[in-house]
Amino acid sequence: xxxxxxxxxxxxxxxxxxxxxxxxxxxxxxxxxxxxxxxxxxxxxxxxxxxxxxxxxxxxxxxxxxxxxxxxxxxxxxxxxxxxxxxxxxxxx
Length: 93
What we know:
- By secondary structure, this protein is mainly α.
- 73% of the residues lie in helices and 0% in strands.
- The protein is built from 3 helices and no strands.
- It has helices at 6-42, 53-66, 73-89.
- Helix 2 (53-66) packs across helix 3 (73-89).
- The radius of gyration is 18 Å and the shape is elongated.
C-alpha cells in the first residue's frame, strides 16, 4: 500500500468526487432515456419517423455550444453520438 502522503490523499478526494459525478451521470442518463422513450412512443401518433437526423445534429450542435472545456467539441460529439445510438437501441418500456 502506498504511503499516505498529500498527493495520495488528494487523488482519493478527486476519486470520491468522480464517483459521485458518475452516480449523478447514471441518474441523468436514465432520466434522459425515459424522456426519449416517451417521445419514441408519441412519434407514430405525430406522424414522425423514429429516426430524425436533423434533430440529432441539432442536439450535437447544442451540446458543443454548452462546452467550456477541457473536453474538445469532437470528444463531446463522440460521447453524444454514442448516447444517441444507445437511446435508439433501448427497448421500449
